[in-house]
């Protein structure tokens, strides 16, 4: 299974969330969710995506309905990771929604908020950190936030 499988499944089964939560919320939130009765498929989504959480089973009140499982991802950087991987395989309607979500993520980052594991210092350089086993580990200092994020992503996958 690969990104094409994930994109095909998400084309028909995923909910792509983009919007503000509550009347006073100033930052737009993004998220992806897949709900279905097949636990094995949901677990495969989680394994291929490499991010997010699986929850369930949720047993409906109506005994005629089957229990449901959910895969969700809401962290902006994790959402970006999945969206960028599946975008090349999506049809125009979903691709437009994904582009809008990626623009929102970019806008939030331009406002001075950095991706998870990245911060800036007074000299204008970017540091990457990762927390493992309760210890915050310095990964290095970089010229761009993208370089720092790449170091964080590599350490996260290691």
Structure described in brief:
This protein has five helices and seven strands, in the order αββαββααβββα. It has helices at residues 3-13, 39-49, 76-86, 92-110, 145-157; strands spanning 14-19, 29-36, 53-58, 68-73, 118-120, 126-132, 135-142.
Q: Describe it for me?
A:
This protein is of the alpha+beta class and 158 residues long. It folds into two domains: 3-113, Endonuclease I-creI; 117-158, GCC-box Binding Domain (2-Layer Sandwich). Helix content is 41%, strand content 28%. The chain is built from five helices and seven strands. The protein has a four-stranded antiparallel β-sheet with strand order 1-2-4-3. A three-stranded antiparallel β-sheet has the order 5-6-7, covered by helices on one side. Helix 3 runs antiparallel to helix 4 (92-110). The model has no long low-confidence stretch (mean pLDDT 87).
List keywords for this structure.
158 residues; 5 helices; 7 strands; alpha+beta; single chain; three-stranded antiparallel β-sheet; four-stranded antiparallel β-sheet; 41% helix; Endonuclease I-creI; GCC-box Binding Domain; 2 domains
């Amino acid at each position: 299974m690969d990104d094409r499988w994930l994109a095909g499944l998400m084309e028909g089964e995923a909910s792509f969330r983009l919007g503000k939560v509550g009347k006073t919320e100033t930052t737009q939130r993004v998220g992806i969710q897949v709900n279905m009765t097949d636990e094995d498929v949901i677990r495969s989504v989680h394994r291929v995506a490499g991010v997010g959480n699986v929850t369930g089973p949720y047993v409906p009140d109506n005994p005629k309905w089957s229990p449901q499982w959910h895969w969700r991802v809401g962290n902006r950087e994790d959402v970006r990771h999945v969206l960028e991987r599946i975008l090349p395989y999506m049809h125009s309607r979903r691709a437009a929604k994904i582009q809008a979500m990626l623009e929102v993520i970019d806008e939030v980052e331009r406002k001075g908020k950095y991706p998870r594991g990245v911060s800036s210092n007074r000299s204008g350089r970017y540091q990457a950190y990762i927390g493992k086993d309760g210890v915050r580990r310095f990964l290095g200092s970089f010229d761009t936030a993208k370089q720092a994020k790449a170091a964080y992503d590599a350490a996260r996958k290691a």
